[in-house]
């Protein structure tokens, strides 16, 4: 078992993170710690721990960025299973054991996640806390696959994966997108199956300097841009009316995000909304119809881009009540 730990300037939390790995109930593992050009005491802490425990292997690099650090760490991992970890998160004692048990019991799986506790201020960071709750609701393999175009279903430091699957897929990619979400989409596009241990095995920290707060690669538009590529590929295989889709959500933001599909060969034939100010109008030559006017299932394929909180569940409830099946007649993309 290898634990892949890329870090930069994590001195304030690193000892707690390392201790949480070192006290695992599964004791046969190595920690591959890649210091990505830290300017604080991070490297000193890593070397001090490594001098006391031969399971810790320290690699020091110039500040190249997270993706190069991840890929360098992958090159150094000697196990066929790799668990991700960050320098400010906390592993629960049975984390490695439980995730290994799932992958051992189900060899068809390529990635094992888990439930996570939110390690931040749930009031000050309500959006992140909501995302954690959303992630924790999607545990089973099919549920993760069907909801992957809504949001990233796997907190990055909570996963364990088969090393060969990641390497065969080309490792982590660097670009103007969130590296973890792109990886999950790419893996599932390749047929890799993902499920979670239905237990809380990690506390996921939420520091103010978190990359997803300060790096443009984690902007909302970056998420929608990267998902459009893989959603279009999925639609080509699963949409019986390809390339035509109907978009649920006729607001400006929903349309802007749905328009990204057109660059990948998808044709938008209509919009669906419930707002009387939009229904009956034409936008860019496409009619806006009320959802009550939708044909029954089997007449068109719908992609929902309505992102307001709670809207996805309400839309699913409506569609299911009218016989529409997730993945068969519609997919959620927000």
TrEMBL record:
Occurrences of domain Glycosyltransferase 2-like (ranges): 2-121
The organism of origin for this protein: Oceanidesulfovibrio marinus
Domain of life: Bacteria
Domain CoA-binding: 244-322
Keyword Disulfide bond part of the UniProt annotation: no
Identification of the protein by name: Glycosyltransferase
PANTHER family hit by this protein: GLYCOSYLTRANSFERASE (PTHR43685), GLYCOSYLTRANSFERASE EPSE-RELATED (PTHR43685:SF5)
Family per similarity comment: Belongs to the glycosyltransferase 2 family.
Keywords: Glycosyltransferase, Transferase
């Amino acid at each position: 078992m290898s634990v892949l730990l890329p870090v930069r300037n994590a001195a304030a939390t690193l000892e707690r993170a390392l201790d949480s790995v070192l006290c695992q109930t599964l004791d046969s593992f190595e920690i591959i710690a890649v210091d990505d050009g830290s300017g604080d005491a991070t490297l000193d802490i890593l070397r001090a721990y490594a001098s006391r425990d031969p399971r810790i292997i320290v690699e020091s690099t110039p500040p190249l960025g997270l993706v190069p650090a991840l890929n360098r760490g992958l090159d150094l991992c000697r196990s066929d299973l790799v668990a991700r970890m960050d320098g400010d998160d906390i592993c629960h004692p049975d984390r490695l054991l439980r995730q290994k048990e799932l992958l051992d019991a189900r060899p068809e799986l390529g990635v094992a996640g888990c439930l996570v506790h939110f390690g931040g201020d749930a009031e000050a960071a309500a959006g992140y806390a909501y995302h954690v709750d959303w992630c924790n609701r999607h545990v089973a393999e099919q549920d993760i696959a069907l909801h992957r175009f809504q949001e990233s279903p796997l907190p990055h430091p909570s996963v364990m994966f088969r090393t060969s699957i990641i390497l065969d897929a080309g490792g982590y990619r660097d670009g103007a997108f969130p590296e973890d979400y792109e990886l999950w989409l790419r893996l599932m596009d390749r047929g890799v199956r993902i499920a979670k241990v239905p237990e809380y095995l990690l506390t996921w920290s939420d520091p103010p300097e978190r990359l997803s707060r300060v790096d443009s690669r984690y902007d909302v538009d970056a998420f929608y841009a990267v998902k459009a590529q893989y959603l279009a590929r999925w639609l080509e295989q699963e949409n019986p009316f390809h390339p035509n889709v109907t978009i649920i959500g006729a607001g400006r933001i929903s349309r802007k995000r749905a328009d990204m599909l057109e660059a990948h060969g998808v044709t938008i034939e209509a919009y669906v909304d419930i707002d009387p100010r939009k229904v009956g109008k034409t936008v860019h030559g496409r009619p806006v119809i009320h959802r009550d006017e939708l044909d029954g299932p089997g007449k068109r394929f719908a992609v929902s881009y309505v992102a307001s909180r709670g809207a996805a569940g309400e839309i699913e409830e409506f569609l299911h009540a009218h016989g529409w099946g997730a993945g068969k007649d519609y997919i959620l993309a927000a």
